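Page 42, continued from yesterday. The earlier attempt failed because a stray header line got pasted into the input along with the sequence. Redoing it now with the clean sequence only.
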Amino acid sequence: MKYAENYERCCLESTNALQRWFMGAMTRKAQAIGQESHKIWSLKYLLDRYFEGRSGLRVLDCGAWNGWFLSYDVPALAQRIALDWDAHYAADLRKSGIEFVLADMEKGAFPLVAGQVDLVAMTSTLEHLSCPEHIAREIHRVLKPGGIVFITVPDIRKYKFRFWDDVTHKRPFNEKSLRFLFETHAMETLDLIPYNHNLFVAGNLFPERVHRFLMKFRGHALMYVGRKAQS
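This time it went through. Structure tokens are written below.
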């Protein structure tokens, strides 16, 4: 299955006029700080919130697809790693200064040294994997002490049977199961809230209070942020 090649055509919803306006506004705001597009705002949010003033950071995106999450490129980032089982975008990622690692996350350990990553992201990926317990264990292993994990998944309570519209979906989650998964793998939950990607990005135009308020609308997914203990 050529999943990465066909994901945008088959699985992403078409944008409406309002969404396109916000994408344009967020792109202009990104360009004003020397970045390229609206795709930067998820990683920027996490670095500003959890890694302010730090440098030499290593970020791993699991199930990276076309690398949109890693498009934020600043001196604080020493290494941006895209891990995926499909190499369709590998050459493009490497041209952008992103290291590509080809690996099937469900087969053995992630091909990374333990305790070397500051931030692990997994956006709309965990629900595609049949063994989340193995994934949570590997995330904990590769994170540095104090490292952060950022997860987004569909909320099965909101999606209901639409969850199965994507034939590659395997494991549904709700708020309780997501918290249970990571807290039983020694992660401290820092944030667990409704998530809508478009509103999450657009919310960067507003103060944090407004940002979080907006997330309650059409928040059909969940956002989990956890931290590995310092020791």
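Notes: Residues 132 and 162 are 21 Å apart (CA to CA).
Reminder to self: strip header lines before submitting.
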